[in-house]
Design goal:
heterodimer; A: mainly alpha; 14 helices; B: alpha+beta; 6-stranded mixed sheet; 5-stranded antiparallel sheet; 10 helices; 20 strands
Chain lengths: 297, 398
């Protein structure tokens, strides 16, 4: 008589067992580590080189080959390099402009996205299409008419006007991102909220907005960076040096005959930091699967 | 406490008429089931009662007050959705507390941003917490109170949806196929739960389903809808025993009522050459009629010499406690089975097991006293309808 061996008993619950993703089957852990390290190195090197350049001397940059290692001892001179210009003022302006653009654009986008997603009205298709009209034309082409318009409205040389112009360019993409997110939410949830006593505005703020937060976060990142990096409109509309955003300020380092590369890089590093921090803050919100379990399944 | 009256409700979607001139009265405390196949208009009707959809014509009246223009909230109804429709970002406790928190909102609390804080503050107030705890324990949800809907099974989610409806103490509960996403065991369990809640609250329940078992076991009244037209509005027993027409006869019962053609001469029906005594309480004229008999109103004998319809056994389905036997009537009888009799067989339900085998000849015996007679043209039951109840009266039939 032969005895049959019982199959081994699993010691972990099925949901706690580590499942191999199909694509990872061929790579061992060290190989994956090396690949990821290469990716980090590849994408991080430009940042490192900015730092290295910022800490190098002019003679190094224009004469002999630039060294691989930063001159950390020059960190003390950093302040002198950027102290000559109101960089913090410019960064604050940038923050106001990018923040204002993001906030205004998201408010409009949530409202417009909701309307496009849930309401039936004449000209809905045309409204959705026209939203993209600004995206179809190059920004440079629109600068002149907007300038004329803003001049007549007294919106030049101020951050409010710049924010408005930025919103016109960034909002359409946000509207479509948010419309897509609302489309994916079952309408029954809204009806349940209506039965529970929510007017539409409360349905939007209490029920839908938390559910589409990942998409709002994604739209916020796009809007913020658009506002932060925007140059053409700012350069055209704002003449006063103290009102410049950092993007325009940074460009002012580039002289006609002489450009101090290390100063530009030092300022650029500072320019990068707030955007980086904003992204790290928002990135945690960009998660999917928040709606899982609301309806059947 | 609300008495619901529906007056000549019609609903069109473009050129399609979904509900035709529906009228009914539902007294307080009734358990009315709207029963029908997909697309019969039953869910639309429920949504019209809730105020989630506007009727194209007609009036919805709660306690003599026309509520056509009132929002779902103003109508003070609770709605349980087939897909549960829980708020996925809130915990079970917050989901249940949601309507109570909203009750306490003043106009300015609805301002975006403020509403989030207001919901949290009101949702955690002492009396709300207590009510949520009471309802949770009633529906055995205590241990899941801090979970989000994503971490619950289908049955638990539907319980949360029921709790959310229950906590508001509404005047009426509207349930739209709440059990159809659940497996058979859970469905039976929650069916009992809903009936218990109905007894406990004493409120009006209006329940939409396509499942006749749910309808028969839960309802105090059933409305059967087909293509937006009411086929019958009666008690479950009346619907089973005296279906208003051949559609209802075929829709209710599993297997459905056997329908066969019969000829009446001098007031006596003949079916497949078998002469039956004159039916009691039904006036039938000479000519063709349709005879309906439930599977349990027929019996089988292996003795072919007995009086009855000669037939051959074609299918045997042993259900344990009883057996369903499908027989094919003899070809020479000229017996036409009514259109869609399942597999063109006459079905008989017999207690226990049968000794007959597939292919055996047999005799079908009819308990003619229990037969229903339908007009062969219109399909309407020829027996007069009973009054369905003191309160619920069907005012319009199609």
């Amino acid at each position: 008589m032969t005895t049959q061996e019982a199959p081994p008993i699993a010691r972990t619950a099925p949901h706690k067992r580590r499942l191999k993703a199909p694509g990872n089957r061929n790579f061992s852990k060290p190989v994956r580590f090396i690949m990821l390290a290469a990716l980090v190195l590849f994408s991080g090197f430009p940042l490192y080189w900015m730092l290295n350049t910022a800490l190098s001397q002019d003679s190094e940059l224009y004469g002999q080959a630039q060294g691989w290692w930063p001159h950390w001892e020059r960190l003390a001179d950093f302040g002198d390099v950027i102290g000559s210009v109101p960089i913090f003022k410019w960064l604050t302006n940038s923050m106001v402009i990018a923040g204002g653009t993001t906030l205004l654009s998201l408010i409009f986008a949530v409202l417009a996205g909701y309307a496009l997603s849930r309401f039936k009205f004449h000209g809905k298709g045309a409204a959705g299409f026209l939203l993209f009209a600004t995206q179809m034309l190059p920004e440079a082409l629109l600068v002149v008419p907007i300038y004329a318009l803003f001049a007549s409205l007294g919106l030049l040389n101020g951050m409010g006007g710049l924010i408005l112009a930025n919103v016109a360019f960034t909002m359409p993409v946000s509207v479509w991102i948010i419309k897509g997110a609302i489309d994916a939410i079952p309408y029954e949830i809204e009806e349940a909220a209506a039965v529970d006593g929510c007017p539409r505005v409360t349905i939007l703020s209490l029920v839908l907005t938390p559910l589409i937060l990942p998409s709002i976060a994604a739209a916020a990142v796009i809007n913020f960076f658009d506002g932060w990096n925007e140059f053409l409109l700012a350069k055209t509309f704002i003449a006063e040096r103290d009102l410049w955003p950092a993007s325009v300020g940074l460009a002012s380092f580039v002289g006609q005959y002489l450009t101090s590369l290390n100063s530009v890089m030092a300022a650029a590093l500072l320019f990068t930091l707030p955007a980086l921090i904003f992204f790290l803050l928002v990135q945690r919100r960009i998660v999917s699967g928040l709606t899982a379990g609301s309806v059947k399944g | 406490m609300a008495k619901l009256s529906l007056r000549n409700i019609s609903k069109r979607f473009g050129d399609t008429r979904v509900i035709h001139d529906f009228s009914a009265d539902v007294d307080n405390g009734e358990f009315l089931v709207l029963l029908g196949a997909s697309g019969s208009g039953k869910s639309t009707l429920l949504r019209i009662i809730a105020g989630l959809t506007d009727a194209s014509a007609g009036d919805v009246i709660f306690d003599n007050l026309r509520v056509n223009r009132q929002s779902p909230r103003e109508r003070d109804v609770a709605f349980v959705f087939q897909s549960y429709a829980l708020y996925p970002h809130l915990t079970v406790r917050e989901n249940i507390a949601f309507p109570l928190a909203l009750d306490r909102f003043k106009a300015w609390h609805h301002i975006p941003g403020i509403s989030t804080f207001a919901r949290r503050i009101f949702g955690s107030s002492k009396d709300v917490v207590k009510q949520v705890a009471d309802v949770s324990s009633m529906l055995e949800l205590d241990e899941y109170a801090n979970r989000k809907p994503g971490g619950l099974s289908g049955g638990q989610r539907q319980r949360v949806a029921l709790a959310r409806a229950l906590i508001r103490n509404p005047s009426m509960f509207l349930l739209d196929e709440p059990l159809s996403n659940l497996d058979a065991k859970l469905r039976a369990e929650l069916r009992g739960e809903i009936v218990r809640l109905h007894r406990l609250t004493g409120k009006t329940f209006i329940y939409v389903t396509h499942d006749q078992v749910e309808a028969m076991t839960m309802a105090t009244q059933i409305v059967i809808l087909h293509n937006g037209i009411v086929q019958q509005h009666a008690t479950p027993q009346e619907i089973y025993e005296r279906p208003a027409n051949t559609y209802v006869a075929r829709f209710i019962g599993s297997p459905p009522m056997n329908l066969m053609n019969a000829t009446v001469t001098e007031g006596l029906p003949t079916v497949g050459g078998l002469r039956l005594p004159a039916p009691e309480g039904v006036r039938i004229g000479n000519g063709a009629v349709t005879l309906g008999l439930r599977p349990e109103h027929l019996s089988l004998s292996g003795d072919t010499s007995e009086d009855g319809l000669p037939a051959t056994v074609r299918r045997i389905e042993d259900l344990g406690a009883d057996t369903l036997i499908g027989v094919q009537p003899g070809q020479d009888l000229g017996l036409k089975l009514w259109e869609l009799n399942q597999d063109e067989l006459i079905w008989i339900r017999q207690a226990g097991q049968t000794r007959l085998m597939v292919g055996d000849p047999c005799t079908v015996k009819l308990q003619d006293r229990l037969a229903s007679y339908f007009d062969s043209e219109t399909g309407l039951n020829l027996a007069p309808a009973k009054e369905i109840s003191a309160a619920g009266m069907l005012s319009s039939l199609g």
